[in-house]
Design brief:
This protein has 325 residues and is of the alpha/beta class. Helix content is 40%, strand content 19%. The strands form 2 sheets. An 8-stranded parallel barrel has the order 1-4-5-8-9-10-11-12, surrounded by 7 helices. Helix 9 links the parallel strand 10 and strand 11. Helix 2 packs parallel to helix 3 and helix 4 runs parallel beside helix 5. The chain starts with 12 loop residues before the first helix and ends with a helix. Bound molecules: ligand PBG and zinc ion (ZN). Zinc ion (ZN) binds next to loops.
Length: 325
């Protein structure tokens, strides 16, 4: 006689549903958006399905479609046409925030990424010194906090600094409070690692850092993958400086970090399923080596298991049709 013990609850859809501990819902998702100045038609992003470099107009159409399909939370990346060294012009992105808020008002939740890598001539996330071998912390932090203030004043619900300079959360919180933007949230990319999983994003955001040799990519400001303690220190510091939401990025290779950090710091936690992770899933399904929906849902489940409250994913806009049936 066969003995069923743990298998008994796995035998029917009913008991699998009833016993499930982790439940995904489309309300937990944030969809990244790219809006690019100076292009006349929206452009595809290599390897990322259903994700575009939008024009100002196609951006609004896409958001309208997403809102109708049940995705109402977004993370916006603005890509200005003109690159600079120290003085940055944020008007393009400010205008896009105003457009979005005029059109969708309180129905939308709009987070805006705050960084300099789409603005600088060299693609680094901060201001470079004269000799080109150091990213200057102080000047970078002031440039970042003025950008954050402009985005908040234009109506962003949340600003999300992704640069990894020291002390930027305190500076941004101060700037927001002084400009009557005390309700604006800060979602900090606290545990952001120096990762190889950012490839398609850098094409989309026009932010590939040059002089790789002099600076070794972004390793002088993003966290070394072999230094998990830095992720904890960085998240504790950001919590202390006034961040409202903390983040781990990339997602899948850093679930251990999320598990540890979310058990130690009781703030809300976001996880970012990066462009390179997404590309892995897209290519696997493109070659019929796995099912796209299944791969996303399984990886998202792992993120909730590790302690995420919200997930930033390029496939967020598919979540309503995959999860709500
Ligand atoms: C840049 C930034 C990056 C991402 C968000 N903001 C990449 C980087 O640091 O080069 C990653 C997004 C992704 O790969 O999906 N500040
Ligand atoms: Zn950057």
């Amino acid at each position: 006689m066969a003995e069923l013990s743990l298998r008994r609850t796995r035998l029917s859809t009913a008991t699998r549903e009833l016993t499930r501990q982790i439940r995904l819902s489309s309300g937990q998702f944030i969809q990244p958006l790219f809006v690019v100045q100076g292009i006349s038609e929206r452009e595809a992003i290599p390897s990322l399905k259903d994700t575009w470099r939008d024009t100002s107009l196609s951006l609004l159409k896409q958001i309208d479609k997403d809102m109708n399909e049940g995705i109402k939370k977004f993370l916006l990346f603005g890509v200005p046409a003109k690159k600079n060294e120290t003085e940055f012009d944020h008007q393009f992105i400010v205008d896009r925030i105003c457009d979005i808020k005029n059109e969708f008002g309180k129905d939308i939740w709009l987070a805006v990424d705050v960084c300099l890598c789409s603005n600088t001539t060299h693609g680094h996330c901060g201001i470079l010194n004269e000799t080109g071998d150091t990213i200057l912390n102080g000047p970078s932090v002031s440039a970042l906090s003025s950008a954050a203030e402009l985005y908040a004043s234009a109506g962003a619900d949340c600003v999300a600094p992704s640069d990894m300079m020291d002390g930027r959360i305190a500076a941004i919180r101060d700037a927001l409070n002084l400009s009557q933007n005390e309700k604006t949230l800060i979602m900090s990319y606290s545990a952001k690692f120096d990762s190889g999983f950012y490839g398609p994003f850098r094409i989309a955001a026009d932010s590939t850092p040059d002089n790789e040799i002099l600076l070794n990519g972004r390793s002088s400001y993003q966290i070394d993958p072999g230094r998990p303690n830095d992720a904890l220190l960085s998240a504790m510091r950001d919590a202390d400086e006034g961040a409202d939401i903390l983040m781990v990025k990339p997602g899948m290779p850093y679930l251990d970090i999320l598990k540890t950090l979310s058990s130690k710091i009781p703030l809300p936690w976001a996880i970012y399923q990066t462009s390179g992770e997404s590309a892995g899933i897209e290519l696997t399904s493109k070659y019929n080596l796995g099912n796209r929906q299944r791969l996303y849902v399984e990886t998202w489940t792992s993120m909730l298991r590790a302690g995420a409250n919200m997930i930033i994913s390029y496939a967020a806009r598919s979540a309503p049709k995959w999860l709500n049936h």
